[in-house]
Amino acid sequence: MIGHELAGRYKIIERIGGGGMALVYKAQDILLNRNVAIKVLRQQFVHDEEFIRRFRREAQSAASLSHSNVVSIYDVGQEEDVHYIVMEYIEGQNLNEIIKERAPLQVEEAVRIATQICDALGHAHHNQIIHRDIKPHNILIGRNGRVKVTDFGIARAVTSTTITQTGSVVGSVHYFSPEHAKGVVTGEKSDLYSLGIVLYQMLTARLPFLGESPISVALKHLQEEFDEPREVNPLIPQSVENIILKSMRKNPEERYQSAEEMMDDLETCLMPMRLNEPKMEFEDDADSTLVMPALKTMQRSSQHPHDQDDDSDDDEFEEKPTGKQKKKWVKPTIIIGSVLLFLGLMLGVVMYVNNMLEVPEVKVPPVVGMTEEEAIRELEAQGLTVNEEVIREYKPNVDEGVVFAQDKEPETMLKKGSPVQLSVGDAKPLEKMPDLSGKTFDQAVEILINMGIKKNAIKQSSENNDTVPADQIFDQSPSAESEINPEQVEEVRLTISKGKQTVNMPSLIGMDKDKAVATIESFGLKVGAIKEKPSFEVKKGEVMEQWPYEPNVPVSPNSEITLFVSSGYPSDALEYNYSVPVSPSAEGQESKIRVVFSDALGDNQEAVNKTITTSEMVPVKLLLAPDKHATVMIFRDGRQVDTYSVSYTDVKNGTVPQPTFEQPPEQPDVPVDTNPDEGNGDDGSNEEDDAAYHWDNGNGKGRGKGKDKDND
Amino acid sequence: MIKTVHVSHVGRVRPVNEDSVFVSTLEHGYTLGVVADGMGGHLAGDTASRLAVDTVAADLSSLEQDMSMDGVRAALGDAILHANAVIYQEASADERLHNMGTTIVAVLLRGSEGYIGHIGDSRAYKVVPGQVIRLTDDHTLVNELFKSGQITEDQLETHPRKNVLSRALGTDVDVTVELTPVTLGEGEVLLLCSDGLSNRVSRELIGQISGSLELPLEERADRLLQLALLAGGEDNITVAMFEHQEEVVGQRIKGWDS
Question: What domain range includes position A392?
Answer without folding.
Answer: 361-425
